[in-house]
Write a structure and sequence with these properties.
It is an enzyme of class 2 (transferase). Keywords: Cytoplasm, Kinase, Magnesium, Metal-binding, Phosphotransferase system, Sugar transport, Transferase, Transport. This is phosphoenolpyruvate--protein phosphotransferase. An 8-stranded mixed sheet has the order 7-14-13-9-10-11-12-8. It has an 8-stranded parallel barrel with strand order 15-16-17-18-19-20-21-22, surrounded by 4 helices. Strands 3-2-1-6-5-4 form a 6-stranded antiparallel sheet. It is built from 28 helices and 22 strands. It starts with a helix and ends in a 6-residue tail after the last helix. It is α/β, with parallel strands linked by helices.
Length: 758
Amino acid sequence: MTSGAVDAARNILTGLHEVMASRQHAQAKLNTVVEVIGESLHSEVCSIYLLREGMLELFATRGLAQEAVHVTRLAIGEGLVGTIAEKIETLNLAEAAAHPDFSYRPETGEEKFHSFAGVPIVRRERAVGVLGVQHVERRRYEEVEIEALQTVAMVLSELITNAGLIDDEDTASLDPAHNAPEQLRGLSLVKGLAQGTAVYHQPRVTIEHIVAQDTEAERQRVILAFDKMREQIDRMAGQAEFGVGGEHEEVLETYRMFAYDEGWTRRINEAIDSGLTAEAAIERVQQRTRMRMRQIDDALLADRMHDLEDLANRLLRIVSGQIGTAASLGLRNDAILIARNLGPAELLEYDKRRLKGVVLEEGSLTSHVVIVARAMGIPVLGRVRGLRGYVREGDMLLLDAEQGMATVRPSPGAIEAFEARFAKNREKQAVYASMRDVEPVTKDGTRIQVRINAGLRDDIANLSLTGADGIGLFRTEFQFLVSATLPARERQTRLYRDVLDAAGSKPVVFRTVDIGGDKTLPYLRHDDGEGEENPAMGWRALRVALEREGLLKVQARALLEAAGGRELNVMFPLVAEPWEFDEAKAVFEGQLAYLRKTKRMLPEAIRYGVMLEVPALAEQLDILAPKISFLSIGTNDLTQFLFAADRSNPKLAERYDWLSPAILRFLRRVVTSLEGSNVDIGVCGEMGGRRLEALALLGLGIHRLSITPASVGRIKDLVGKTDLGEIEAAMRGWLAEPPANLRETMHAWASARGLLTD
């Protein structure tokens, strides 16, 4: 907040303090408030709209027709005022009528005014009104004026709430009729099943006083609160109970960085300078952070902002003395945690014996809390729209993070069916777990390699838990995605060495960093700063690494040093031409030569491989085959490129079928082209983790699969029941003369032989 905004806000707050202390009734206070704001900002119009009966009603105005007060009403989303309330964001317009959402109301007499600025009046994360100013002249309002309006809007939220002028919060946010069962859809962030009662993570922190009596005293309260918060974060980071050296440690390190951010501290102190109490200043900055979050398209940057909000919640509880969260109060029963979003440190505070699952209104697959939840083994469902409008504290919840669904207040029949499924799932997992030491050998004696995909240090434990043959794909980019800055070589080396140590004699295939597309890094951008229309086919994966050679050099050196005395398997992603492989390999060979000169311990052997994701590469495998040791088919990207169908687009789901004759014939041709070579061919991707699709791959002659750890048991079970010769013969026939629906044909064939048990 600039000094001009501080002065303007302080002048207005002084006037508002006198108004609030007066014995006027609520309407008279609002009438005085618009006059105070209008005079302080030299505004010709100042108006206050409040939420009543679900509509935004004009409650007070300076400059508009008084006859419109309590007459003009706008729905949420209607007009400029309704848009501000709906999106909880600020509008600053030189010409209001030019805005597409402008709605003219003749009774207000506002036709002579052109410029408009409006800010939401926010109460507990929802808009309860709008404060707006207007001028005859066409101009955009200065930042100092907008900041002053935002500060005043915060004070108004307390005034109008205490006066009972707005809809009751429970009435506005939760329909009392919502007692029936509800099914809420979301995004599976951490898979799993869970049952428990709904517990809201964040108890309400009520701010009793907005305007400061002693600015210096408020500043000291904030300083002490920051000290206490940082002490908590440092202690928490040192007491994480789920292993040493996991990716969650890097998450907490980034989290600690935010706790010590000087810019955040400065903004809170500036809000105190404007005349706010410590609590109000923290809330003021937090509201602005939320508004910024709504404008951020970059998922990673948004996740960083969520971390900052998590810290702000913690700081607010400390400074107000209302420290208790659902975690500190203790979980009495099995619980499903409900939150708009959640910070990683706050998740760590919960009793893992009672916390069975988490449901978030927001969240993303790469968010920090998801990484920590995965390490804790807690299923998470995210992006559940309207979550807090459907769930009450204490409601029974059935969380199905396998199917991306949560059932609220389920019927007895739904509970019985879920518990039966849950029990069956446990039994099935127990059967699969018992196969840990069983080798995947077909009925006719062919040994199939079943490996796992991984990307986090904590994933390595799944090797022993599943009895997998190794790691067929270690996604090195995960370390980059959870870091606030580019990971240093030493950090990369430490991670790769730890992974190899944990794997022991089992092979690990490291895929070089695959960033870009849907895995953007805030600290690594296009040089031209422009976005891409088709990021999945753009500046990503090996293309980034070859353009920014330093990135690949550092990773090559880290991998070579980590693998000293052992075999190193390295794989390059998104190779489209053999020359791309040649250039990438040359980077590794250059670093190998450097390490040899410096007498460092070198890998005993280096096996180079590529991922076949770009169809063009299949036409040049005869050129590439003599240069590589192995080839992994990345079915996720390959299939969407073959079908020109974005795999994330639900409208194209039917076109994205792994059992289409087109994809199976393509894979068969790849296998055939490598027959007689020394290239080990396999598949890494979701296709290999599904029983019917895995059966098809076996029929094509693919004997190495790399899949999610959760799928290892079921695929081992499938392999043991499969006659390889029989499925190979059937596949030859189906691909020679494809049936009308190959999926249905295969399903019937497999079911008749007892191969589909889930």
